[in-house]
């Protein structure tokens, strides 16, 4: 019963966040602004979006190829097509339950090629760690090239918050933060669920170390760079779909890309959150909120459509493969 409730929360909470962000986005728009967004969506040059989808799909193929370097290191090497189908299935599952795709991928290669599920998940965790590091590097680059735009934004918000709060309020918040930190440290060290978290973090470290000990690590890293280059190019070419976003500076493009990447991680495939965060970040670079919102929805819709079609085709191909194998 408890596990079922947790699974339900994993689905509903990110979905609720997405719906909430959609609500606060559109309740602040006037009727004219909503019509302006519709106009942007209708008049967009979708040939650039198609190119972006192709680039994104190339990154998925590269991810399938890259995975075999890690699987080979643990004594297994599924067919490339099997990996392609496993990743398509995983992406589709992530739209329903965030982070469930990793398990789905592992289950597919287990059923088709008898790769142990725990070992398969270990390889996926390792690649997620490396991908997260790449994302952090891009985030740091975005902060550097954006100059003071983003830093000034947060400084302004913090100064406003502290200006409204008295010294006694700040002291209370400081004490609460200290107590919370102490509780987290104690729980992390002594309570079983937090021990599991500690072991999980240790597993991440072990998985990441495997990347550096495998024989084909440089090919693995080359595919990683290719994957993220495709992600960035996908985002970049898509801005030309709308004439008014074609002149967004590199700093704005990188910052919006980072915001979108984190939005996808925290909600069901970025539903609601992706367009909202794209618009809010681009607003800092002088892009009208209606225009930023339109671009965000075009990007999210195109990439979600790719995942759905890719996932559906993967499901069908797996079904055919399983039925043929059963005979």
UniProtKB/TrEMBL annotation:
GO cellular component, as recorded: plasma membrane
InterPro entries to which the protein is assigned, alphabetical: L-PG_synthase/AglD (IPR022791)
Keyword Membrane: yes
A Pfam match: LPG_synthase_TM
Topology with respect to the bilayer: Multi-pass membrane protein
Subcellular location: Cell membrane
Membrane-spanning segments: 9-26, 46-65, 129-150, 170-191, 218-242, 248-266, 273-291, 297-320
PANTHER family per UniProt: UPF0104 MEMBRANE PROTEIN MJ1595 (PTHR39087)
NCBIfam families in the cross-refs: flippase-like domain
Name of the protein described by the UniProt record: TIGR00374 family protein
Species: Nonlabens arenilitoris
């Amino acid at each position: 019963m408890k596990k079922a409730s947790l699974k339900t929360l994993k689905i509903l909470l990110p979905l609720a966040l997405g719906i909430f962000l959609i609500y606060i986005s559109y309740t602040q728009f006037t009727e004219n602004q909503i019509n302006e967004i519709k106009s942007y969506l209708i008049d967009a040059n979708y040939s650039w979006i198609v190119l972006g989808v192709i680039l994104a799909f190339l990154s998925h193929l590269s991810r399938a190829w890259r995975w075999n370097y890690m699987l080979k290191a643990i004594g297994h090497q599924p067919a490339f097509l099997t990996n392609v189908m496993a990743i398509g299935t995983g992406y589709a599952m992530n739209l329903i339950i965030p982070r469930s795709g990793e398990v789905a991928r592992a289950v597919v290669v287990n059923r088709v090629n008898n790769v142990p599920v725990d070992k398969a998940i270990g390889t996926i965790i390792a690649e997620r760690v490396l991908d997260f590091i790449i994302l952090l590097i891009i985030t740091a680059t975005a902060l550097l090239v954006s100059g003071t735009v983003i830093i000034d934004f947060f400084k302004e918000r913090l100064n406003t918050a502290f200006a409204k709060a008295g010294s006694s309020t700040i002291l209370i918040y400081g004490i609460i933060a200290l107590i919370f930190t102490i509780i987290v440290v104690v729980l992390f060290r002594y309570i079983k669920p937090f021990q599991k978290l500690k072991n999980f973090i240790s597993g991440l470290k072990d998985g990441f170390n495997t990347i550096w000990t495998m024989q084909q690590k440089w090919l693995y890293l080359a595919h990683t760079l290719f994957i993220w280059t495709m992600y960035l190019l996908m985002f970049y070419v898509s801005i030309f779909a709308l004439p008014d976003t074609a002149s967004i500076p590199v700093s704005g493009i990188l910052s919006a890309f980072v915001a979108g990447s984190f939005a996808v991680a925290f909600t069901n495939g970025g539903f609601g959150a992706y367009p909202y965060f794209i618009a809010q970040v681009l607003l800092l670079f002088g892009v009208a909120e209606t225009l930023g919102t339109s671009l965000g929805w075009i990007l999210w819709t195109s990439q979600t459509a790719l995942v759905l079609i890719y996932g559906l085709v993967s499901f069908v191909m797996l079904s055919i493969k399983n039925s043929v194998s059963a005979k």
